[in-house]
Amino acid sequence: MQEVTLDNPTSLTTQLKRSFAIMKKDLRIYYNKGPVVIQGILFPVMLFFAFTVGRNIAPVYIISGLMAMVLFLTSTSIGPVVFPWETRQMTLERLITCPISIKTILVGNLWSSLVFGCVFSTIPLILGVILFFEIQMNFLLIALGIIIAALAFSSFSLILSVPPTDMPANTMILTIFVKFPIIFISPLFMPVSFAPLAVISPLTYFIDIINIGLGTESSFGSFGFFLDFGILLLFALLSLFAAFFLHEKTITKRFS
Predict the structure, then answer these.
(1) Is the pLDDT of residue 36 over 50?
(2) Mean per-residue pLDDT of the chain
(3) Are the beta carbons of 204 and 198 closer than 8 angstroms?
(4) Are 75 and 114 in contact (CB under 8 A)?
(5) Full-prediction pTM beyond 0.85?
(6) CB contact at 8 A, 243 and 94
(7) Lowest mean pLDDT among 48-57, 85-94, 196-205, 217-226
(8) What does the pLDDT average to over 23-47?
(9) How does 33-65 read in b/e, with b if 16+ C-beta sit within 10 Å?
(10) pLDDT digits (tens, 9 = 90+) for 77-87
(11) Which of 80, 93, 189, 247 is most buried, by CB atoms within 10 Å?
(12) For residue 207, is pLDDT > 90?
């Protein structure tokens, strides 16, 4: 296995290119798998109607809430599936014997989840702009928020695939128990002040970014913008390094 070090830029470049190859493979193979479709596409639609039917909600909160829910569920739908699926198909064993590090494989999974989340999260934004044409939008801020939040949620999804199982259904059960409490404590379709526990959810800070991008004030005061991005970046880094550490501890158990 090739060791990647900071003082070997050629190796880093090579591993980065290989992570993009893994990304393309993941997007081609997993975007239409049952667990990805159910958790990444069907659940957001069902939850949207469950949260909004019969309620008088401001257009800004409809757009930000739906974007947050779609981005979170789509960004965390591919990551938990790849490792158990490839363990079952015995393709992970072949991949791990290549001149590629486990970190590169994880980063490739991260890219695919990030792209999947970014693409699908723009759909509610486009629909919202069409339906509520009076909405004022800061496109640059929203686009940056989507990318940073997708990075954070995709990094988090890698942790959900740590258990060394070859059954995707097992990781689906785990992700449901982890992701849905995060969704329900988040201020979806409402001001952040209406959900006191929302500050412990990373979704809250993405919602706040979208609300700012749609013309409202930050729920965290004058420096809320910096707080939102800072917490999402910190969450992304902590999740990614935790995933690196945990997968290196459990990878050999997948082949025993």
Answers:
(1) yes
(2) 83
(3) yes
(4) yes
(5) yes
(6) no
(7) 48-57
(8) 74
(9) bebbeebbbebbeebbeebbeeeeeeebbbbbb
(10) 888 888 888 88
(11) 80
(12) yes
Q: According to the model, what pLDDT value does residue 9 have?
A: 42
Burial 114-144 (b: 16+ CB within 10 A, else e): bbbbbebbbebbeebbeeeeebeeeeebbee
